[in-house]
């Protein structure tokens, strides 16, 4: 490409300089030829005039001779007459006996080869020299051809010329200019015939043209000038090319950005006609948006009932960048009919370098999809947290299950033993001769009650282990605490733990009873663990009302919370126990927070640990809903 541009510049230079130099040479050549032609014409005219003068002398002497003028008188006359004509060197009167020179001749005339006729003629001497004779009757006028042009030579521009005898190549006289012959570049020629009656001699005129006559300096200057011009043109071409490439790159980059943008972008001219629209714009407006489309005709904005009416005309013609009012809807008609989508965006004027309006650019964004995506994101996050919590609860229940094994066996053992003994008693009573049916009914009823209790314990155990989604309902906090105490009764008894309870009246909360019992169970089991080596182990359970709601406190007189775990009690897997998982408290806190409450723990001033579960108070009216 670069080579091509360089060749173009070179070609331009060659053409310009070639044409210019040729024109210069042609013009100078023409001028030289014209000057030469003028000089040659002057020479021809002067020579012709001189020839005529000679003929006039001849005619005058002939006339005098015919009138019978005497030789002496003729001689005197001639001496005066011939003074202005130096080329006429002698005049003779010839008779058949011989020729007699009249007056005082400049030169002695030579002899003629042949006799001349009586009529007018030109005679050439035998020696072929520069003298020749014009004759009429018996008068001869001798002309020296060398003197014909003597005066001319000095005044005329350098010209060479040769005078010939008619119809021959014999030169009468030749004059060669000395000027320029050595260094002549060329020679200009012209042939003419002298314009007289007696002497129509051919004359060849020539002029050497010196090398220095040509416009060398001008040509060199012109060539240099055109070289400079061509260089300038080449540089301009290069600069233009670079600018074009930069512009193209810029355009491609800008185009790419616009194409890739997820916002709808439409560029308009001053009359709101589309000049460029990206795919997002076509998709948003349900329109192919070919260039030239009046965007106002295919875009309908509508304000909602809550907004001020949308003034489309002033929006489209605004001289300043203008944003669409928040919550504005765009009406569009697709295959599925008309729909309204919420959009946000702006219209900005595009101005030229002088600040004049060149067009506008509209940028639109659908708000709906963005909001929907954010909502989905949030729901997704919440769902994951919920799943995580349920999974933690499940793990916690499984671990607790092992520890509860013994207690459960004991719990189930009691009703089962009772059922067996009630059954045996009923059988014994029936074996009596007069069975006391009332007692039998009582024994059977009692065994049914015990069987139900066993079933209840098993059901609770299954619920405990199973992952059940939370089901909030009005729940009595003191009842939940009692249920947990029942579950742990065996362990409490085994360790000889004293349990002190103090409950406020009907402490109602909205909670999932199973989850609530799990929290309390965790706290109770931790307290149990804590008081294992304490003399007079005591656990206090109290429910009281405070301004945040219901507060369940679980206190113990154990060693208190160990310093190394106190700062991250509620972080999963924080444990100070050999077989502990460290999930109980974290799970319990999560569950409590899920119910709108919280769980915290600290060491009591009097020793031991206090854990408090706070839950929002549920009013009686709300509970009855
Ligand atoms: P785990 O009981 O499996 O260790 P938890 O989350 O229930 O898991 O308890 C975490 C830790 O908190 C325990 O290991 C213990 O160090 C401390 N902790 C909990 N309750 C008490 C308490 N009543 N007295 C002293 N320390 C306690």
UniProtKB/TrEMBL annotation:
Histidine kinase domain: from which residue to which, for each copy? Answer: 407-619
Pfam families documented for this protein = HATPase_c, HisKA
Which PROSITE patterns does this chain map to?
HIS_KIN
Q: Which UniProt keywords apply?
A: Phosphoprotein, Plasmid
Q: Does the keyword Phosphoprotein apply?
A: yes
EC code: 2.7.13.3
Q: Does the keyword DNA damage apply?
A: no
Q: Name one GO molecular function term.
A: phosphorelay sensor kinase activity
Which EC class does it fall in? transferase
Give the reactions, separated by semicolons, that this protein catalyses.
ATP + protein L-histidine = ADP + protein N-phospho-L-histidine
> Which SMART domains would you find in this protein's record?
HATPase_c (SM00387), HisKA (SM00388)
Q: Which InterPro entries match?
A: HATPase_C_sf, HATPase_dom, His_kinase_dom, HisK_dim/P_dom, HisK_dim/P_sf, PAS-like_dom_sf, Sig_transdc_His_kin-like_C
Q: Which PANTHER family match?
A: SENSOR HISTIDINE KINASE, TWO-COMPONENT SENSOR PPRA
Q: What is this protein called?
A: histidine kinase
Species of origin reads Deinococcus psychrotolerans
């Amino acid at each position: 490409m670069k080579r091509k541009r360089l060749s173009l510049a070179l070609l331009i230079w060659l053409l310009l300089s070639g044409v210019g130099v040729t024109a210069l040479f042609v013009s100078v050549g023409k001028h030289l030829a014209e000057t030469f032609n003028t000089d040659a014409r002057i020479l021809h005219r002067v020579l012709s005039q001189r020839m005529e003068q000679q003929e006039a002398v001849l005619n005058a002497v002939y006339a005098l001779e015919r009138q019978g003028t005497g030789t002496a008188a003729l001689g005197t006359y001639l001496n005066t007459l011939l003074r202005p004509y130096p080329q006429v060197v002698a005049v003779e009167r010839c008779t058949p006996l011989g020729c007699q020179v009249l007056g005082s001749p400049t030169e002695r005339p030579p002899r003629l080869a042949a006799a001349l006729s009586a009529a007018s003629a030109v005679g050439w001497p035998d020696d072929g020299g520069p003298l020749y004779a014009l004759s009429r009757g018996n008068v001869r006028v001798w002309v020296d051809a060398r003197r014909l042009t003597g005066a001319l030579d000095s005044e005329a521009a350098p010209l060479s010329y040769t005078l010939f005898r008619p119809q021959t190549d014999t030169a009468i006289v030749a004059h060669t200019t000395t000027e320029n012959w050595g260094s002549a570049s060329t020679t200009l020629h012209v042939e003419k015939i002298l314009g007289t009656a007696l002497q129509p001699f051919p004359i060849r005129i020539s002029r050497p043209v010196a090398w220095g006559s040509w416009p060398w300096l001008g040509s060199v200057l012109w060539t240099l000038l055109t070289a400079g011009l061509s260089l300038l043109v080449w540089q301009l071409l290069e600069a233009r090319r670079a600018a074009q490439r930069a512009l193209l790159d810029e355009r491609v980059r800008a185009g790419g950005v616009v194409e890739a943008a997820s916002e709808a972008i439409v560029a308009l001219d001053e009359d709101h006609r589309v000049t460029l629209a990206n795919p997002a714009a076509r998709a948003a407006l349900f329109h192919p948006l070919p260039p030239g489309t009046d965007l106002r005709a295919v875009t309908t904005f509508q304000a909602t009932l809550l907004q001020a009416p949308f003034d489309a005309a002033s929006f489209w013609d605004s001289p300043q960048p203008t944003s669409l009012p928040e919550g504005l809807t765009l009406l569009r008609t697709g295959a599925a009919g008309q729909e309204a989508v919420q959009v946000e965006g702006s219209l900005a004027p595009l101005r030229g370098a002088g600040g004049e309006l060149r067009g506008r650019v509209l940028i639109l964004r659908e708000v709906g999809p963005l909001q929907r995506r954010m909502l989905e994101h949030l729901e997704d996050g919440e769902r994951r947290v919920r799943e995580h919590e349920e999974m933690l609860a499940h793990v916690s229940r499984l671990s607790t299950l092992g520890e509860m094994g013994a207690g459960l066996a004991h719990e189930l053992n009691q009703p089962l033993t009772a059922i067996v003994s009630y059954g045996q008693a009923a059988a014994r009573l029936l074996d009596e001769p007069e069975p006391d049916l009332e007692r039998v009914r009582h024994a059977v009823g009692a065994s049914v009650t015990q069987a139900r209790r066993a079933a209840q314990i098993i059901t609770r155990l299954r619920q405990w282990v199973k992952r059940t989604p939370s089901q909030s309902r009005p729940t009595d906090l003191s009842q939940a605490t009692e249920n947990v105490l029942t579950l742990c009764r065996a362990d409490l008894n085994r360790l000889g733990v004293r349990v002190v309870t103090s409950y406020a009246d009907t402490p109602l909360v909205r909670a999932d009873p199973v989850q609530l019992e799990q929290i309390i169970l965790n706290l109770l089991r931790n307290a149990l663990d804590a008081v294992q080596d304490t003399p007079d182990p005591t656990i206090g359970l109290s429910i009281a009302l405070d301004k945040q709601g219901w507060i369940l406190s679980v206190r113990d007189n154990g060693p208190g919370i160990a310093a190394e775990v106190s700062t991250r009690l509620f972080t999963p897997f924080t444990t100070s126990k050999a077989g502990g998982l460290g999930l109980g408290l974290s799970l319990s806190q999560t569950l409590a927070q899920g119910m709108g409450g919280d769980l915290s723990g600290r060491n009591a001033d009097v020793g031991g640990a206090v854990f408090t579960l706070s839950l929002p108070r549920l009013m009686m009216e709300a509970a009855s809903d």
